[in-house]
Amino acid sequence: MEIVNVNAAALCNSEVMEMLQKLKDTTQKKHKREGYLATVIYETLHYLQDTECKNQTAESVEKFLKAMKKFKLTKTEKLMMLNTPPRTELEIQLIVQESEERLSEDDVSNIIDIINKLFPPNKAS
Amino acid sequence: MFVLSEMKDVIRITPEHFHQSLTDSLAALLNRKLANKVVLNVGLCIALCDIIEIGHSYIFPGDGSSHTEVIFRCIVFRPVIEEIIIGKIKNCSREGVHVTLGFFDDILIPVNALQHPSRFDETDQAWVWEYPKEDGEKHDLFMDSGESIRFRVTSETFEESLPSGPPGAECTPVKTVAPYRIIGGINEPGLGLLTWWEAPDQDDGGDNEEEDNED
């Protein structure tokens, strides 16, 4: 086997969840399920269901990325914000490197507002 | 956390699969080969995403199977270094805190990457963060199994698993090494159990007492 490109594209958790859900539905229909595949799909979906990505849609993710353009964040930082949406200043400091220099206090509260609006926090948890 | 990796392989399709379409059998065989497997320096393969190109199929003398070259993309679990991930504590040991994501277990937060100062509680088999209070006393924060924990990925190691040596001779005890391990850290403010950093608006104070009662 040959590796052409290890990192051809990054995926956010909600994309992975959508793809796996689809795959699960199609493989279930064929009633002949592969052991390893079924296990890993089940376990991964189980993990993803507990994360915030289950409420994210392709639309809200796109809106979020558009709103984040003006803050000059890196791709990884935005990806982390999607996977673990920060709701406090502290969480933004963890995700964004040297956030004190790169983001003003207004920027930080802006980001939190946008996240709370697009991905409302789970009341249940 | 997840990436798409592009790979190329030659897949052998045995004649009993010839009634299926080529794409279907390729997808099934690729999933069988890769799902839940660690590929060296790539990561943990979850499932096939799509097939990009199907090359020519060849039949070799003495083998009724067809061999097809195929380029495909696979969903791979491969966190970026410095990434923040939320997992659950599997257990604690003298080595540190073992974290699981459900589908991936080989995550260790070593002792030197725990919040400082921490001690290992032998009776509870759990690490405890001795959070200093203003009055000079300590507040014990327990890291129990099953709790959600936020950590930063600090490094990763891939281990090539070799076939075991010939029988007899020097029989080294068979040690199963994890092919892909992630080392994490929680020695930064904001990292560690999610309950440690919850916003104080949701009736805090009760939170701390609860933890006191547990021990």
UniProtKB/TrEMBL annotation, chain A:
Family in the record: Belongs to the eukaryotic RPC9 RNA polymerase subunit family.
Subunit: Component of the RNA polymerase III complex consisting of 17 subunits: a ten-subunit horseshoe-shaped catalytic core composed of POLR3A/RPC1, POLR3B/RPC2, POLR1C/RPAC1, POLR1D/RPAC2, POLR3K/RPC10, POLR2E/RPABC1, POLR2F/RPABC2, POLR2H/RPABC3, POLR2K/RPABC4 and POLR2L/RPABC5; a mobile stalk composed of two subunits POLR3H/RPC8 and CRCP/RPC9, protruding from the core and functioning primarily in transcription initiation; and additional subunits homologous to general transcription factors of the RNA polymerase II machinery, POLR3C/RPC3-POLR3F/RPC6-POLR3G/RPC7 heterotrimer required for transcription initiation and POLR3D/RPC4-POLR3E/RPC5 heterodimer involved in both transcription initiation and termination.
Alphabetized InterPro entries for the sequence: HRDC-like_sf, RNA_pol_Rpb4/RPC9_core, Rpb4/RPC9, Rpb4/RPC9_sf, RPC9
The protein's role, per its UniProt record: DNA-dependent RNA polymerase catalyzes the transcription of DNA into RNA using the four ribonucleoside triphosphates as substrates. Specific peripheric component of RNA polymerase III (Pol III) which synthesizes small non-coding RNAs including 5S rRNA, snRNAs, tRNAs and miRNAs from at least 500 distinct genomic loci. With POLR3H/RPC8 forms a mobile stalk that protrudes from Pol III core and functions primarily in transcription initiation. Pol III plays a key role in sensing and limiting infection by intracellular bacteria and DNA viruses. Accessory protein for the calcitonin gene-related peptide (CGRP) receptor. It modulates CGRP responsiveness in a variety of tissues.
Record's GO cellular component terms: plasma membrane; RNA polymerase III complex
SMART domains cross-referenced by the UniProt entry: RPOL4c (SM00657)
Record's protein name: DNA-directed RNA polymerase III subunit RPC9
Membrane topology type: Peripheral membrane protein
Localization per record: Cell membrane; Nucleus
Keyword Cell membrane among UniProt keywords: yes
UniProt keyword Transcription, yes or no: yes
From TrEMBL, chain B:
GO biological process: defense response to virus; innate immune response; transcription initiation at RNA polymerase III promoter
One Gene Ontology cellular component annotation held by this UniProt entry: RNA polymerase III complex
UniProt keyword terms in alphabetical order: Antiviral defense, DNA-directed RNA polymerase, Immunity, Innate immunity, Nucleus, Transcription
The keyword Nucleus belongs to this UniProt entry's keyword annotation: yes
Cell compartments where the protein resides: Nucleus
Entry superkingdom: Eukaryota
Domain RNA polymerase Rpb7-like N-terminal as annotated: residue spans: 8-64
Pfam families per record: RNA_pol_Rbc25, SHS2_Rpb7-N
Domain RNA polymerase III subunit Rpc25 positions: 83-197
Listed GO MF terms: DNA binding; DNA-directed RNA polymerase activity
Quaternary context: Component of the RNA polymerase III complex consisting of 17 subunits: a ten-subunit horseshoe-shaped catalytic core composed of POLR3A/RPC1, POLR3B/RPC2, POLR1C/RPAC1, POLR1D/RPAC2, POLR3K/RPC10, POLR2E/RPABC1, POLR2F/RPABC2, POLR2H/RPABC3, POLR2K/RPABC4 and POLR2L/RPABC5; a mobile stalk composed of two subunits POLR3H/RPC8 and CRCP/RPC9, protruding from the core and functioning primarily in transcription initiation; and additional subunits homologous to general transcription factors of the RNA polymerase II machinery, POLR3C/RPC3-POLR3F/RPC6-POLR3G/RPC7 heterotrimer required for transcription initiation and POLR3D/RPC4-POLR3E/RPC5 heterodimer involved in both transcription initiation and termination.
Similarity comment text for this entry: Belongs to the eukaryotic RPB7/RPC8 RNA polymerase subunit family.
Known function: DNA-dependent RNA polymerase catalyzes the transcription of DNA into RNA using the four ribonucleoside triphosphates as substrates. Specific peripheric component of RNA polymerase III (Pol III) which synthesizes small non-coding RNAs including 5S rRNA, snRNAs, tRNAs and miRNAs from at least 500 distinct genomic loci. With CRCP/RPC9 forms a mobile stalk that protrudes from Pol III core and functions primarily in transcription initiation. Pol III plays a key role in sensing and limiting infection by intracellular bacteria and DNA viruses.
Entry protein name: DNA-directed RNA polymerase III subunit RPC8
Species, as recorded: Chrysodeixis includens (Soybean looper)
